[in-house]
Amino acid sequence: MPVDLNGYWKMISSDNFEEYLKALDVNVAIRKIATLLKPDKDISHDGDHIIIKTLSTFKNYNMDFYVGKEFEEDLSGVDDRKCLTTITWEGDKLVCVQKGEIEGRGWTHWVNGDELHLELRAAGVVCQQVFKKT
Q1: How many C-beta neighbours within 10 Å does residue 84 have?
Q2: pLDDT tens string 32-41
Q3: pLDDT digits over 116-125, tens only?
Q4: Hey, how many other C-beta atoms are within 10 angstroms of the C-beta on 57?
Q5: In what order do the strands lie in the sheet with 115-122?
Q6: Cα–Cα distance measured from residue 53 to residue 43, given in angstroms and rounded to the nearest whole number
Q7: DSSP 5-70
Q8: First to last CA, the chain
Q9: pLDDT at 79
Q10: CA distance 54 to 42
Q11: Which helix (H) or strand (E) is 102 found in, with range?
């Protein structure tokens, strides 16, 4: 059964983010800036329609999608690539698969208490981030 992701979430931890960015071939200057940031997540979840806004002082990224429907995702705000993205519920986890140049790319969101967990994956590298609901 899908969980309610609605809310504003503040990052409290990030593990292995720079290695994840290296796997995406993000240039060193952007990697250094990105690893210093603690972005917030503003999530609006209404049935199968979900909007995830990743907000920081450097750059914002908005993802607006319907669960189960493949779409072309423009990642120019991340690593300047495009992929075919599909997001589905697997139990109480929101799982994203991004098909494109980078093998094994995607992410998973799940809630544990008042924490939102995010696992980012690319080319065998895994980054774990945790956000707290405000």
Answers
A1: 12
A2: 999 999 999 9
A3: 999 999 999 9
A4: 10
A5: 61-66, 49-55, 40-46, 7-15, 125-133, 115-122, 106-112, 93-99, 82-90, 71-74
A6: 6
A7: --EEEEEEEEESHHHHHHHTT--HHHHHHHHH---EEEEEEETTEEEEEEE-SS--EEEEEETT--
A8: 23
A9: 81
A10: 7
A11: none
Instruction: Name the amino acid, one letter, at 122.
Output: A
At residue 114, what is the residue type? D
| Distance of alpha carbon 5 from alpha carbon 52, whole angstroms | 9
C-alpha 32, offset from chain centre: 19
Beta-carbon contacts of 29 under 8 Å, excluding residues fewer than 6 positions away, are none
| Tokens 């999530």 found at | 43
